[in-house]
């Protein structure tokens, strides 16, 4: 990095602060002209693509996951902070893989795992849509599974 005033390469960081969720604000000073300026740095992330059950591919959208979690947790004792934490953990786990493509089944299983820890009713609600329950027996099976602790 160079000083925007004198083009000198020697700089020092005077102050560093977190800025938004994924960026930093740094106050820098040029060692030649002593002028200060601010830079904003953001961690570069890989664009994830989701491979759907049909084989179609689409851009990863964490808002879709958020909508699903919120719908499952509707009228349940789950806080916004818990939902945001779960969403952040899911996204972190997805981005930590060394691949740019994630199967939708992996995402669904991650969401179900997080909901299982948050609220059992929300878990059953999400699972009923995600696994496309066709009858009452499917509900009974998943409830038996929950009761047995699997």
What does this structure look like?
- With 150 residues, the chain is an alpha+beta fold.
- It is 45% helix and 22% strand.
- The chain contains five helices and six strands; from the N terminus they run βββββααβααα.
- The chain has helices at residues 62-72, 80-96, 104-118, 120-130, 136-148, and strands at residues 11-19, 23-30, 36-42, 49-51, 57-59, 101-103.
- A hairpin with a 3-residue loop joins strand 1 and strand 2 (23-30).
- Helix 1 runs antiparallel to helix 2, helix 1 (62-72) crosses helix 4 (120-130) and helix 3 (104-118) packs antiparallel against helix 4 (120-130).
- The termini are far apart.
- The mean pLDDT is 90.
Question: Summary?
Answer:
The chain has two domains: 11-42; 49-148.
Provide mean pLDDT, rounded.
90
**Strand and helix order:** EEEEEHHEHHH
Number of domains: 2
**Cross-sheet strand order for the largest sheet:** 1-2-3
Coarse shape: elongated
Which percent range describes the beta-strand content? Answer: 15-25%
How many strands in all?
A: 6
How would a textbook summarize the main sheet?
Answer: 3 strands, antiparallel
- Derived from helix and strand composition plus strand pairing, the structural class reads alpha+beta
Helicity, as a percent range: 40-55%
N→C terminal distance: 54 Å
So how many helices? 5
Computed CA radius of gyration, to the nearest angstrom:
23 Å
Low-confidence stretches: none
């Amino acid at each position: 990095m160079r000083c925007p005033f004198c083009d000198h390469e020697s700089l020092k960081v005077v102050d560093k602060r977190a800025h938004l969720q994924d960026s930093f604000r740094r106050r820098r000073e040029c060692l030649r002209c002593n002028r200060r300026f601010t830079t904003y740095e953001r961690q570069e992330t890989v664009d994830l693509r989701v491979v759907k059950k049909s084989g179609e591919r689409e851009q990863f959208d964490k808002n879709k996951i958020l909508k699903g979690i919120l719908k499952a947790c509707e009228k349940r004792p789950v806080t916004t902070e818990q939902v945001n934490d779960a969403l952040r953990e899911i996204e972190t786990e997805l981005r930590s893989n060394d691949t740019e493509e994630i199967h939708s089944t992996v995402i669904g299983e991650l969401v179900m795992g997080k909901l299982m820890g948050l609220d059992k009713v929300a878990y059953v609600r999400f699972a009923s849509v995600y696994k496309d329950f066709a009858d009452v027996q499917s509900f009974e099976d998943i409830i038996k599974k929950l009761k047995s602790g699997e």
